[in-house]
Write a structure and sequence with these properties.
Structural class: alpha/beta
Radius of gyration: 22 Å
CATH topology of the largest domain: Rossmann fold
Number of domains: 2
Helix content: 40-55%
Strand order of the largest sheet: 3-4-2-1-5-6-7-8
Number of helices: 15
Strand content: 15-25%
CATH class of the largest domain: Alpha Beta
Amino acid sequence: MITFLTLAGIENSTTKRVLYIAKELQKRGHKVNFLSLNWISRKGSDCRGTTYFEGIKVKEIQIKNSFIGLFITGPLELIPHLKGLIFLSKPLPPHTIPFMMSRIFKKNKFILDVDDWEGIGGGASYSHFGWFKRTLISFLEEYVPIKAKGVIAASRVLERRAKDMGVKKVAYIPNVAEVPDVNINEKDKEDLIKELGIKKERVFLSSGSHSADMVVGGLKYFIEGFSKAKSKNFKLIITGQGKYTDSLKQLCDKLNLKNNIRFVGFVDEKKFNTCIAISHVAVVPHNSNYPYTLYALSSSPRKMYEALAYGLAILGCKTGEINETLGDCETLVPEGDVNEVGKKIDELINMSENKLKELSGKNKDKAEIEYNFKSQGDKVEEFLKTI
């Protein structure tokens, strides 16, 4: 039996990573027990209880957002559900502290899966936290890996970090993406092209939340790069919404890119797939040129793997996991120089259709051979044999 323990909400990207691992292992005959802890605030929070995600039974356990809930009632609620080897996701307080406290009574072996570095800087999602919460996160990231029987790292930076900490069993298992097998209706494509005012331009696509400062900081950097391109024969589609959306729009206006960049907000899966179908290049905006450098370098951006699987060319920086995965790619740019970004954008705009299809095909082949759930399941199974 393998018990997966993670944060609440199946939409959470960290939870989704381990859900897909659990799904792959269950398909291979492993018994899977999936738990998520919902840290209930005073204002209340939705709790689904037990639900299903693509065949995986997910049990959500409520824990009150208080000292007693975290250190006493939470662990007691959790103990009856801990069975077999524990697959602990990301050492953050809401689920890690109750689990570590429960080990006073239950000595289950556990492995830790880490998909980025939150760090003392606070990470992209935790920059608003005060000193105590950020220090607690930093402590857990240093303490939990050395207590685990092994660590699964989503990036090479995290793999090296775990080994430097003295963790003896470390496996590098990057994020992957499950891309639905869909047939895009030609009329939907024509309607979207008309809606966005696309003529014969080269189409770039950026997708993701506008609430994570790292992602938005990187996107602003690339928007500045688009302003440096000599050719304006492009459209950049930006999906997503968040607290930084208005500032992104203001930057586009300031740089006179209003006619070249289209914000479409949150889109459903059907429209997102249509956006993919009319695009040539995915913009992956992660870069380390912002305060939380370690977070940026260690992050394994799911959007990059989605772009690979969809067969798009990728415009990104030669940094962190992007460089580890796509180091031989012709469409990466040196970090820190928007003029170089502009030159690469010009190169992509002027690239022949055949050359662009060749690059896209290489990316799709890479995803199908190397970055898929089967290969991920193989790596996890091999790792589990060593525990």
